[in-house]
Amino acid sequence: MASGGLEQEEAPIGELVGRLIDQGKSYARAEVGLAKAIATAKVDTIRLPALLLAAALLFVIAGVVTFCISIALALATLIGPLAGGLIATLVAFAIAGGLALVAKNKLSAAP
């Protein structure tokens, strides 16, 4: 009774270590759950805009193809269908090559 009547029994070290491990596991699970919740929330906010952007890119591709066909048809009346198609194709490939060259230069210049 030297401690004022409040005697506390100390738990064995093994039990304390076991509780510490259990609490550490619970904390780690809670952190993983929080990270999953944050990632899910971010994915949910990005999902619809990403799908809309993909649909927009498909329409851009369709527009470019239609434009190239229009050029080929317009040239076909002037120089024939085969030559018009070849010239339209060469113009499209030249534009694609130029864009690829610009992209390559930007990537090689990036740190």
Provide key terms for this protein.
mainly alpha
Give the count of helical stretches.
2
Number of domains: 1
The first-to-last residue Cα distance is 73 Å
| Amount of beta strand | under 5%
Helix content: over 70%
Helices and strands: which structural class? Answer: mainly alpha
Order of helices and strands: HH
Average predicted local confidence, pLDDT? 87
Unreliable stretches (pLDDT < 50, length at least 5) are none
Description:
The protein has 2 helices and no strands. The longest helix is centred in the middle third of the chain and has 67 residues, at 13-79. It is rod-shaped, with a radius of gyration of 34 Å. The protein is 86% helix and 0% strand. The chain has helices at 13-79, 81-109. It has 111 residues and is mostly helical. It starts with 12 loop residues before the first helix and ends with a helix. It has one domain. α1 (13-79) packs antiparallel against α2 (81-109).
Please give the structural blueprint:
Elements: H1 13-79, H2 81-109
Task: Summarize, please.
The chain has helices at 13-79, 81-109. It has 111 residues and is mostly helical.
